[in-house]
């Protein structure tokens, strides 16, 4: 989706086969992961064992492959125009760090009052703001790449500083004030910083250096029209690989507890819809334009599932219900946000008509 200002039909017409049938490939990847996890005894344990300092190596490889091509597309010389847009930055911070965690807390308690382990897992998901897959959804929806890079970096900084504080507040302090059951999480700023450095820092530095030296060696025209089309498809290859690994890790639990998955899915569906819709509505009201409104909506709706799962496993164990709630997160998030990509592209025509009028 490289045609930045085309209408939705024109964009769809220019898509490669991989892009055009993305929902199909994602459904196949999810099904393949579930079947592999269910059909091959010990596969989940074997994949979980492949770790480096507590980080799942297969998932790390998939996420790095997924994020690098998109971050190589970013025009880093345009970032100053994003950092000057205070409406965008303030709106993103409010949605991500005030509205998002509070909304997930409310939905978890309202819809899972009798399932404390799953409720805790969902609250942890709500605290882990997205720094990875949101870049893919934003790019597929033709959002503002430079704005996405800035907002993801901003979320990363706040994640290191605020995750443990907000976890303590929403799992222990606020429930105590409201007379509800209290719990805790055990995580360190270094654990969160490590996740940020690996899943954002490495592909960000790689993308920046690729553009810098690629343009210096061959020029911008070669970089934009020769190199980027070659490396671009790898973002979706990485996405599909990551999905297969994620669902293979917990395939047995997901298939063996279908009603639990349904119960967890209900608040997640409400969360993604409300956060995306709220971000989109805010962007429309303040006149951000299609690209930045789309970026704001997707950065508000996405979550850092890798961090949420890692924290849940470290605190409650790999087979815990808290960890299962984290794993169900991408099970729901992936198809929902893919659907919202197409909703965004359809709504793009409304922005165009408003501009013409």
Automatic annotation (TrEMBL):
GO terms for cellular component: plasma membrane. InterPro entries: Arsenical-R_Acr3 (IPR004706), BilAc:Na_symport/Acr3 (IPR002657), Na+/solute_symporter_sf (IPR038770). The chain crosses the membrane at residues 21-40, 55-76, 88-112, 118-137, 149-171, 191-210, 231-249, 261-283, 295-317, 323-347. It is a multi-pass membrane protein. One of its GO terms (molecular function) is arsenite transmembrane transporter activity. Keywords: Arsenical resistance, Cell membrane, Membrane, Transmembrane, Transmembrane helix, Transport. Coiled coil: none annotated. It is found in: Cell membrane. Pfam families: SBF. GO terms for biological process: response to arsenic-containing substance. Belongs to the arsenical resistance-3 (ACR3) (TC 2.A.59) family. This is Arsenical-resistance protein Acr3. It comes from Nocardia macrotermitis. The gene is acr3.
């Amino acid at each position: 989706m490289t045609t930045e200002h085309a209408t939705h039909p024109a964009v769809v017409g220019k898509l490669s086969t991989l892009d055009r049938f993305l929902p199909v490939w994602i459904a196949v990847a999810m099904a393949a992961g579930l079947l592999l996890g269910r059909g091959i005894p010990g596969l989940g344990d074997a994949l979980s064992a492949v770790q480096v300092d507590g980080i799942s190596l297969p998932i790390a490889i998939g996420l790095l492959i997924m994020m690098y091509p998109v971050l190589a597309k970013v025009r880093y010389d345009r970032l100053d125009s994003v950092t000057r847009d205070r409406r965008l930055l303030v709106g993103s911070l409010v949605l991500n760090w005030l509205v998002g965690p509070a909304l997930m807390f409310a939905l978890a308690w309202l819809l899972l009052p009798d399932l404390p382990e799953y409720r805790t897992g969902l609250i942890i998901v709500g605290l882990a703001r997205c720094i990875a897959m949101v870049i893919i959804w934003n790019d597929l929806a033709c959002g503002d790449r430079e704005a996405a890079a800035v907002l993801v970096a901003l979320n990363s900084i706040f994640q290191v500083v605020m995750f443990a504080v907000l976890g303590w507040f929403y799992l222990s302090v606020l429930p105590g004030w409201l007379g509800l059951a209290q719990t805790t999480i055990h995580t360190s700023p270094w654990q969160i910083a490590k996740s940020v450095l690996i899943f954002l820092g490495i592909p960000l530095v790689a993308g920046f250096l690729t553009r810098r030296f690629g343009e210096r060696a061959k020029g911008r025209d070669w970089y934009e029209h020769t190199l980027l089309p070659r490396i671009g498809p790898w973002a979706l290859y990485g996405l599909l690989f990551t999905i297969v690994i994620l669902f293979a890790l917990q395939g047995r639990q997901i298939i063996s507890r279908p009603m639990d998955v349904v119960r967890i899915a209900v608040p997640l569906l409400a969360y993604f819809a409300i956060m995306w819709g709220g971000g989109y509505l805010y962007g429309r009201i303040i006149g951000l334009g299609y690209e930045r409104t789309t970026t704001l909506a997707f950065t508000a709706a996405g979550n850092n599932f890798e961090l949420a799962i890692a924290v849940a496993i470290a605190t409650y164990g790999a087979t815990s219900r808290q960890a299962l709630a984290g794993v169900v997160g991408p099970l729901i998030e992936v198809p929902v946000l893919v659907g919202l990509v197409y909703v965004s592209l359809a709504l793009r025509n409304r922005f165009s008509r408003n501009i013409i009028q």
